[in-house]
Q: What sequence folds into this?
């Protein structure tokens, strides 16, 4: 980033549980030579259906992070794989998506 000594990267974590037990976490990573600082910007409990969790994730990325490079890290266990497939099919989401 020009004029800013910090290079910032955005990480969005999505964990998907059973029966509406989902969470979304937004982390900013400020990197300088030899140091890094992580800032948890938001941690949101998504007490709703998987479809609404996908929509909330998409809206969060588009509203807050679409202007910046970001990484979306998604829980690939249980219901995660179909959710990842749906997120990858969203043309508006430009984030790199990683499965864990």
A:
């Amino acid at each position: 980033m020009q004029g800013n000594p910090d290079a910032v990267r955005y990480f969005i974590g999505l964990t998907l549980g059973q029966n509406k037990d989902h969470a979304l976490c937004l982390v900013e990573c400020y990197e300088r030579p030899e140091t890094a600082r992580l800032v948890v910007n938001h941690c949101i409990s998504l007490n709703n259906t998987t479809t609404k969790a996908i929509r909330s994730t998409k809206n969060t990325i588009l509203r807050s992070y679409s202007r910046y490079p970001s990484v979306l890290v998604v829980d690939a266990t249980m219901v995660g794989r179909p959710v990842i497939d749906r997120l990858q099919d969203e043309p508006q989401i430009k984030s790199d998506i990683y499965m864990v």
Summary: Helices lie at 50-65, 80-88. The chain has one domain: 7-99. The longest helix spans residues 50-65. The mean pLDDT is 77.
